[in-house]
């Protein structure tokens, strides 16, 4: 079975631009979470979606938004990019959200 | 708030040495505790977990015991290999929660 897949793997954006990151969960998993991992730090929780509803949000500005589709895949959108948004963005899927989380390989975003 | 503190790295060991990576937590309640490993250029993989006090998680020769009295979950391995070189993250999740709270990570370098 395929694991959690994220796309793209790398991208470079300019300050002020917008970006969309994509995540496909493991088949049968209904929950998707997003984390931001700045270089040299631990991942920070951004969002969790379960059954297409937002279940929780971390301490991130409104420039960050996400959604989950009927097939349980998810998109993370970041508007008005700042240099500080440069990070590895990790997606994790789980069956219900409070069970074991499986992580994708991440999307490396560089803002220049 | 809830938080996780890990010993700072890097930790440099010779092959077959004994490994300990310290992890302590602060939580209002009784969290589940996790160790994740991140190999270069990859996402996070769950290494082991423990869901209640005195539980011992183990996997691939790694062990950690949930110590409520000392609020700790130290990672140990009796004989490390070069292939264990990676960054290790301690994390907690509260009951009925949906997000993982990570420590800052500890880089382990094992030399032949």
What structural class do helix, strand and pairing data of chain A support? mainly beta
DSSP strand tally of chain A: 11
> Mean pLDDT of chain B, nearest integer?
94
How far apart the termini of chain A lie comes to 37 Å
Helix content of chain A: under 10%
Topology diagram in text:
The complex is a heterodimer of chains A (112) and B (112).
Chain A: E1 5-7, E2 10-13, E3 19-24, E4 31-37, E5 44-50, E6 53-57, E7 64-68, E8 74-78, E9 87-94, E10 102-103, E11 107-111
Parallel strand pairs in A: 2-11
Antiparallel strand pairs in A: 1-3, 3-8, 4-5, 4-9, 5-6, 7-8, 9-10, 9-11
Chain B: E1 3-6, E2 11-14, E3 19-21, E4 23-26, E5 32-38, E6 44-50, E7 56-59, E8 62-65, E9 75-77, E10 86-93, E11 101-102, E12 106-111
Parallel strand pairs in B: 2-12
Antiparallel strand pairs in B: 1-4, 3-9, 5-6, 5-10, 7-8, 8-9, 10-11, 10-12
Short précis:
The complex is a heterodimer of chains A (112) and B (112). Chain A is mainly beta and 112 residues long.
What does this structure look like?
The complex is a heterodimer of chains A (about 110) and B (about 110). With about 110 residues, chain A is mainly beta. Chain A is about 0% helix and about 50% strand. Chain A has strands at about 5, 10-15, 20-25, 30-35, 45-50, 55, 65-70, 75-80, 85-95, 100-105, 105-110. In chain A, strands 2, 4, 5, 6, 9, 10 and 11 form a seven-stranded mixed β-sheet that branches. In chain B, the strands form three sheets. In chain B, strands 2, 5, 6, 10, 11 and 12 form a six-stranded mixed β-sheet that branches. The interface of A and B includes residues 4, 35, 40, 58 and 103 of A.
